[in-house]
Amino acid sequence: MGTPEFPHLGKHCSVSDCRQIDFLPFTCDRCNQVCCLQHRSYTNHGCPNASQNDVTVLICPLCAKGVRLVLDQDPNITWESHVNTDCDPSNYQRATKKRHCSVPGCKEVLNLSNSIRCRDCTKEHCLKHRFGAEHSCQGTKKPESGFPFAGLLSRSQKGKSPQSSSSTSSWWGSGFMNAVSNARASAESGMLKFSNATAQALQKARSGVAEGINSGELVELCIHCQARFSSVSDLIEHVERYHQQSSKPGVNKVIIDVCPKCSRGFRDPVALVEHVERDHGGTSIAK
């Protein structure tokens, strides 16, 4: 057995009926017997320890989970341990009732990543049958025109005689045109009312400002708090009382000169002189 270079090459099969020499023999991991290619499996060479590698799994009828039987342990004990610890009856619906592709013969299980709902027949299909030609779609066809009320018109015409179809379509067309014209007229009238109200509000505001200036009421505006006063002296008193102490140091104070006749304030003395000469007859002496 073997060769002069490799004298220990090859062994005989341990099966008594075989005893064939094999240069690449197999050694059983359970009984450590040497076997040939034909008798390498546990069943063919009758391995007495093959049961140690057996794996038996039972499906629980309550939760649809697999329960593996432990070797050299009573199956009743294994089953009782599973029922008391891992058994969850709510898992039965998720495990048994899985979504499949609606195409006959397709066993693809659908999930969030491989399912598409057809817009025509409203059925879910896998990615392979996502097109209408692949799943023989029998759903309603899309309307050829882009008219948004085509579906409403088609549903309203179901169950009616062919003689009344023309009158119904003309009635729907006239009703739609009337609704459009009424909506347009109401929108134009609303815009007209809005523009008129805006013009009246602006006119009232302008007239109110003019009346305030002519009557000398609340025409002077405080630049700090936006308060209005009837005269410049009241404005100056308000600024000195409430805003002069809170002013930041280093900021130049504004000196306002008052007209002796109309009590109008000016920051520039030259502007005050020009105002007196222009509006009060060229004299700045109070009477």
What is the tally of beta strands? 12
Low-confidence stretches: 209-213, 247-251
Distance between the ends = 149 Å
The shape, in one word, is elongated
**What fraction, in percent, of the residue positions are helical?**
25-40%
Cα-atom radius of gyration = 51 Å
Number of helices: 6
Strand order of the largest sheet: 1-2
Order of helices and strands: EEEEEEHHEEHHEEHEEH
Overall pLDDT score: 75
Alpha-beta classification? alpha+beta
Strand content: 5-15%
Give a quick account of the main beta sheet: strands, pairing sense, barrel closure.
Answer: 2 strands, antiparallel
Pfam family, one: zf-AN1
GO cellular component, one term: cytoplasm
Keywords: Metal-binding, Zinc, Zinc-finger
GO molecular function: zinc ion binding
3D structure, described in words:
This protein has 287 residues and is of the alpha+beta class. Helices cover 34% and strands 10% of the residues. The strands form six sheets. It has a two-stranded antiparallel sheet. It has a two-stranded antiparallel sheet with strand order 3-4. Strands 5-6 form a two-stranded antiparallel sheet.
Summary of the model, kept short:
With 287 residues, the protein is of the alpha+beta class. It has helices at residues 75-85, 91-96, 150-156, 163-215, 232-242, 269-279; strands at residues 11-12, 21-22, 26-27, 34-35, 57-59, 66-68, 115-117, 124-126, 220-221, 228-229, 257-258, 265-266.
